[in-house]
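Practice problem: predict the structure.
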Amino acid sequence: MTRRLRRAAALLALPLLLGLALWAPIPKVGDPGIDRVVAQVHTRLPGWHVVRATDTWEGGYAVVASCGMHEMGFQVVPGHGLPPDDAWLQPNDSYARISLEKVSDYPTFLIWRARPAIDRTLNCNGGLTQVVSVNARNASVVDYGQRAVDESRHKRID
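Answer:
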């Protein structure tokens, strides 16, 4: 009698385990590329929270970051004609484009360099964003507003 119960339990458990295995997601144990991109976002956008970061096609990464009520989606694409540690930025909308232009290391393209000449960050302080430019010669320059950002981006640094 106990043999029959064991066999019946095994026969019932097998389809349940198979169904669970097919239904449950495959666990993922970290991705160094995503970790590197999230670290870049935290460096360039201090105080912003990374809501999502996933890998996309051709080595790119989709990122969604939030600051209070503002949410910004963009892609970070390393390489593709740039040095290996530099990355192209592709915004999802005009808000993201305007925000990423403030922290781009190049005036006409949205690019994050691995070793920028000027470190630009977009801080999130309780919903108020401020752009901070740090130059090797002047370690504490804080620029507020679009005009100041434009002026600081077109200064010669040599």
